[in-house]
Specification:
Length: 289
């Protein structure tokens, strides 16, 4: 992935966040769902404002105007609850870190998608494997779109990114160069159904140390936690989650930025074979199945 072209001898995928490092960072300060000011930094990729390495907040023009889709972090300004979204009986409960806005969940766990015509066959095959994992282990169903209003368009854009949860209408999920790894594809689909990064969950300080001194300054805000009262914690912190980044995410100096308190190495999504057991449980809890 990344904006720079692959060079001979490059390690395969590079970390997801690397695409972030390749463009100038923009930032906004907005009140979060708890009313506290929060810095949001992003880079422009394919016209999308991308934060945390791979989460699209929406079109750059919209985001610059303060219209962001960042459920669970920023207040939703224009997201009436769509028909068929699970009610609170289905979505309540302790529990990965899911979005807390029910309006960002896909009704009945059904996620319509289309492939952009330019998406290579090998990537389509990998998406098929990822979808089979959701089907086998959860009640979430990715289904080819017919005429649904809200759907995910999967395209080969610049790098890998997704929106967080359902936005309504078309939302783009990019699997570009160097994104064709099962762990990466599952990671992006997990964002699309509403999962935050594991290292941003509100209770992460009990399980990982963040070394901000090693983080490129423009990207320190990528390590802000989701407000405690707003994320839905689905189980304990999971060092093996497909939603956690590796030890050197956003590192400015090659030193670790993210260190598990239990001493285990943290690997990037691409290096993972897929879901952790706890990821699957979290999906089932979030979608009430
Ligand atoms: Zn991500």
């Amino acid at each position: 992935m990344g904006i720079s072209p692959a060079r001979a001898g490059d390690e395969p995928p590079v970390e997801l966040w690397r695409q972030q490092m390749s463009g100038p960072a923009h930032s906004l300060t907005l009140p979060d769902v708890a009313g506290r000011l929060r810095d949001i930094s992003y880079v422009a990729i394919d016209g999308q404002a991308v934060t945390e390495g791979d989460i699209s907040l929406g079109r750059v023009g919209d985001v610059a105007g303060g219209r962001l889709h960042f459920p669970g972090v920023l207040p939703e300004k224009e997201s009436p609850r769509p028909e068929g979204v699970p009610d609170d009986t289905c979505t309540r409960g302790p529990s990965g870190a899911g979005v807390s806005d029910a309006s960002a969940l896909w009704p009945k766990g059904r996620v319509p998608y289309v492939f952009d015509p330019g998406l290579p066959a090998a990537v389509r095959d990998m998406v098929g494997k990822a979808i089979a994992g959701f089907t086998a282990g959860t009640c979430v169903r990715f289904v080819p779109r017919t005429d649904e209003r809200a759907f995910v368009r999967i395209l080969a854009g610049t790098g890998c990114y997704s929106m967080l949860g359902m936005r309504g209408g078309q939302q783009d999920l990019s699997l570009g160069t160097r994104c064709n790894y099962l762990g990466t594809v599952i990671h992006e689909l997990m964002h699309a159904i509403g999962f935050h990064h594991e290292h941003n969950r509100s209770d992460r300080d009990g399980s990982v140390d963040v070394h901000l001194e090693n983080v490129t300054p423009a990207y320190r805000s990528q390590f802000q936690k989701v407000a405690a009262e707003r994320n839905r914690l689905l189980g304990d912190f999971d060092q093996n989650s497909v939603m956690i980044y590796g030890n050197r995410a956003f590192s400015a100096n090659g030193l670790d930025t993210l260190v598990a308190k239990n001493g285990q190495a943290l690997t990037d999504p691409y290096a993972k074979t897929g879901f952790s057991g706890a990821d699957l449980i979290a999906v089932r809890q979030m979608y009430g199945c």
